[in-house]
Design goal:
The chain is mostly helical. It folds into two domains: 35 residues; 105 residues, Multiheme cytochrome fold, CATH 1.10.3820. The longest helix has 27 residues. The radius of gyration is 20 Å and the shape is elongated. The termini are far apart.
Length: 150
């Protein structure tokens, strides 16, 4: 009989933890907003407000939202990237362990580079053809301010 009580207590604690974390994530941290394509969701975190404001003044504001540049365009890739970034960002921002000013990491830079190349394929092919002797060139090497004016 006592085993059932222990199991019931453990389940109650687990349910409380899940409810607490879920409530924090989806109520306080506006977790559902990250499931949308709305760039305003990105400015929920104070460290992204400068990037959001810069995007509103950039040339890409009229043609691209955050997901167009920062997530893969296939279904699985987009949601796996959003899940991975959501986890890492929530841990970093909750614990306060993040670099400020915020910067893009290698995995996300590769995704952004692929999206630059996809949208601007004709001109990128021409540039790569001319500069192929020096290896692949990162778009952000010359166009650092395109999506977010610095």
């Amino acid at each position: 009989m006592w085993r059932y009580r222990v199991v019931a207590a453990v389940l109650a604690v687990c349910a409380g933890v899940v409810a607490g974390v879920g409530g924090y994530t989806f109520a306080y941290a506006q977790g559902l907003s990250y499931m949308t394509n709305d760039p305003a969701a990105c400015r929920n975190c104070h460290v992204m407000r400068e990037q959001y404001d810069a995007w509103t003044r950039s040339s890409h504001h009229a043609v691209a939202v955050c997901n167009d540049c920062h997530t893969p365009h296939d279904f699985a890739g987009k949601w796996l990237t959003k899940a991975r970034n959501g986890w890492h960002h929530s841990v970093a921002f909750t614990t306060g362990r993040f670099h400020e000013p915020i910067f893009i990491g290698p995995k996300n830079l590769a995704i952004t580079e692929a999206n630059c190349r996809r949208c601007h394929e004709p001109i990128v092919q021409q540039i790569d053809r001319v500069l192929s002797h020096s290896g692949p060139l990162l778009c952000t090497r010359c166009h650092r301010d395109v999506g977010h004016l610095h």
